[in-house]
Write a structure and sequence with these properties.
The protein has three helices and no strands. It is mostly helical.
Length: about 170
């Protein structure tokens, strides 16, 4: 068999069907034996040319893909940073909502405190009035008691005076 030159010849040789004999018995040679002979036929120059051709064919696309992947990676980093910023904004919004809820709760309890204070002032006024009234009633009662006591003493004195006294004999 002739040795083809260049990559086209190699491709033709590689694409050509192999001649295989009848089914191999266990005593015959293995199918790998022919492969080793085929590899010895291929010269190194053809391999180098094919390698260079393959590299020159795919390298620009691979380099463009590499640049595109680097750009995508950078864009992903930018997107992740932006996403983190947005997440922090949402967290701030949630904390603001929590703060707003706390303020509304504080307003509610403040109004309750104001109402309790009003009630306490009203109760204080009522108790003060009741204390004054109780004091007046107590003073009036004491005065009436004193008047009754004085009235009794007067009546006793009058009774003493009205009771007949035996005349003194001298």
């Amino acid at each position: 068999m002739e040795q083809p030159e260049g990559k086209e010849g190699f491709l033709l040789e590689a694409a050509a069907p192999r001649q295989t004999g009848p089914a191999l018995d266990s005593c015959e040679a293995s199918p790998d034996e022919g492969l080793i002979e085929d590899l010895a036929i291929i010269d190194k120059k053809a391999v180098e040319q094919l390698t260079e051709g393959l590299i020159s064919h795919y390298l620009p696309d691979l380099q463009r893909s590499k640049l595109a992947l680097q750009e995508l990676t950078q864009n992903q980093v930018v997107l992740l940073d932006t996403l983190e910023q947005e997440i922090s904004k949402f967290r701030e919004c949630n904390s603001i909502l929590d703060i707003n809820a706390l303020f509304s709760e504080a307003k509610h309890y403040h109004s309750k405190l104001v109402n309790i204070r009003k009630e306490m002032m009203m109760l204080h006024e009522k108790t003060s009035k009741l204390k004054k009234r109780a004091l007046k009633l107590q003073q009036k009662k004491q005065k009436e008691e004193l008047e009754r006591e004085q009235q009794r003493e007067k009546e006793l004195e009058r009774e003493k005076q009205l009771t007949a006294k035996p005349a003194r004999r001298t």
